[in-house]
Design a protein that fits this description.
Blueprint: H1 7-30, H2 36-57, H3 67-91, H4 97-104, H5 107-118, H6 125-146, H7 154-177, H8 183-205, H9 214-242, H10 244-247, H11 249-264, H12 272-288, H13 290-298
Helix pairs in contact: 1-4, 1-9, 1-11, 2-3, 2-8, 2-9, 3-7, 3-8, 4-7, 4-11, 5-6, 5-7, 6-7, 6-12
């Protein structure tokens, strides 16, 4: 039974927001020495190996792979690891890490219309208003790029980041419809799927990675361990203790932290439209999740 959030839950959700918000900065550091496919593949493979070791250490067994479960694992693996990791790694060669983090803020808003059509969660008027407001923020974010399509890589890179967010949103809906399976086991197997897809692509396009200096290499290792392995354990722990609704508080933190780290550590310029987009997206999220948010914050 889910209890009221404890101090540990609050510190956990803050830590999770911090880790996922910093991920885009770390990807940018890894790209200083490695190609985008190598970054995506290393992150996925190291995360998969780590979670498989955690499965073994905690005595978790592989589930009985029915056709329905097998299809779910493959689809979730493609849409939650292989494709978005590639899109983000490629896109971040041409856009600031803060842009990628802001793009991810649209995920909860994309989930709502997808859930309306593909699950039993109807899109009421309040949620629709929140979605429209949030998407207006996304348009503010990528508007200049849409007007410049065909004029260089940056507009396409912006669309790649938004498409990665759509992949994450789709995988979230698929995860809800997935047959019952331990969350850690599901995370491990979907990363295995992602690694199996990405490894041959990396070998063909970029070859085996070689040492490219301490900063990008450490960034690669951090990507595999923190945003995947450790964050997955933390997410499972928080969900079991305080519930999935409480976990949505992470969504409000990620774009803010991505902007903070991008400006502070990487000295990225943050144009005014980034702040306008952030305000619109967070307001849209708050409106669409108002009753859940009020229950988490005020207990009623």
């Amino acid at each position: 039974m889910v209890q009221q959030p404890t101090k540990q839950d609050w510190s956990g959700v803050f830590t999770l927001g911090l880790i996922w918000g910093a991920t885009f900065m770390v990807v940018a550091m890894a790209l200083e020495g490695y190609g985008p496919i190598t970054v995506a593949t290393s992150r996925t493979t190291l995360g998969a190996v780590t979670l498989l070791l955690m499965m073994r250490a905690t005595g978790r067994k592989l589930p009985v792979l029915t056709p329905a479960l097998s299809v779910s694992i493959v689809l979730i693996g493609v849409l939650s690891t292989a494709v978005p990791f590639m899109l983000l790694s490629w896109g971040q060669q041409f856009v600031p890490s803060a842009f990628a983090g802001l793009s991810m803020a649209a995920i909860p808003l994309m989930v709502l219309p997808l859930a309306h059509f593909f699950s039993d969660e109807p899109l009421n008027l309040r949620r629709l208003l929140g979605v429209c407001l949030g998407f207006s923020g996304a348009l503010v974010l990528i508007g200049p790029g849409l007007a410049q399509l065909g004029q260089g890589a940056e507009p396409v890179a912006q669309l790649a980041c938004i498409t990665a967010a759509l992949c994450y949103a789709s995988s979230s809906v698929l995860t809800r419809r997935c047959p019952p399976v331990d969350p850690l086991v599901l995370a491990a197997l979907t990363l295995v799927v992602g690694a199996a897809l990405l490894l041959p692509i990396m070998l063909v396009t970029e070859g085996l990675p070689t040492w490219q200096g301490p900063r990008p290499t450490i960034a690669l290792i951090v990507l595999g361990l923190l945003p995947t392995a450790f964050a997955t354990l933390l997410r499972v722990s928080i969900t079991r203790s305080a519930g999935s609704v409480f976990l949505t508080l992470v969504n409000y933190q990620v774009p803010i932290w991505s902007m903070v780290f991008g400006a502070w550590i990487l000295s990225e310029a943050l144009p005014l439209r980034f702040y306008i987009a952030l305000a619109l997206i967070l307001t849209g999220m708050a409106i669409s999740q108002w009753f859940s948010l009020r229950k988490v914050l005020f207990g009623h």
